[in-house]
User: What shape does this take?
Amino acid sequence: MKDILSMTLDELTADLTNEKPYRAKQIYSWLHQKRAVTFDEMSDLPAALREKLNKEHIICRLTAVKTLVSERDGTKKYLFELPDGECIETVFMEYKHAHSLCISSQVGCRMGCKFCASGLDGLVRNLTPAEMLSQVYEVERLTGETIGSLVMMGIGEPLDNYDNTIKFLTLLSDKNGKNLSLRHVSLSTCGLVPKIRELSKLHLGLTLSVSLHDSDNAKREDIMPVTKAYNIDELIKACKEYIAETGRRISFEYAVIAGVNDSKTDAERLIKLLRGINCHVNLIPVNNVSETDFHNKKDNVKNFEGYLNAGKIPVTVRRTLGSDINAACGQLRKQRTEDRRQKTEDRRQKTEFGINDC
Ligand code: SAH
Assistant: This one.
């Protein structure tokens, strides 16, 4: 079966060579503008074509199996089940100017950042372009709202799923589809240097966020193993090239972790590293993940912000939306995987001991 929602208009046109030339555009509009979820809804297509599409193509759909709503700020966190039963998380945030969505790019992650819940069990698989796009379409369907900006900061490393990510961005910004300007998109990476270079050549206009979290190489290696493959010097060099190539400012993410990277010395080293670079630092109060012992400390984010301000580095503190709903990415999926594992184990024991469910 062909994954029709992952196809660009050109690919769909090539796929339908025996049909009238305008059919591809018609179907594309049904999928990406009218958001049809079945071929039977496509009422202006001949029945024979609908039947053929039904036989040869599937329209990717996600099922919300759990929704958490923040009582504090209305943030909604969805646990979506994919067609093969795997799960991912998507977060819908309401801002004054526009609704924003944080999407996942992989099931799990193989980058192994020590403070992150998403990678605790490694990578399961990449998401398809359709599975990334469906997070947008499904949330718009469920909320009745229009997503005006998007961040790729959910589960996964988008640049480790490079081709599908680029295709997703192409579909998302297509004027025949959702038509979201990539100026309203941020892509976050832990620092895959060759892919940052590749991305810069595409001039997509998006904001690149680089998860830095430490300015000392040995310390960064401890919390972010990717540093062993691409050290801080190489990463910063690639970032400078990215800025020169695209003319866009880079945003460096820095999760402030008590006793790990929050001292005045850490801030001074960071200031030295970033001085003169067209960038901005986004401080994130680290989210506690029960499996790790990284935690936040009262005032450490504020103090760190003060050090950076004194060093004239542009800095903001990320608003913590949905703090009452387990907002650290990967936590909800992890819970679900554990619940399922427990159920399988219970079932195994019941079978072993001859107990039957029905
Ligand atoms: N793989 C990408 C995008 C996903 S993570 C990346 O590394 O950038 C999105 C952001 O959340 C990253 O900056 C990541 O380092 C951060 N993050 C992950 N776990 C966190 C936690 N427990 N507390 C604070 N930030 C966290």
User: Anything to note?
Assistant: Confidence is low (pLDDT under 50) at residues 351-358.
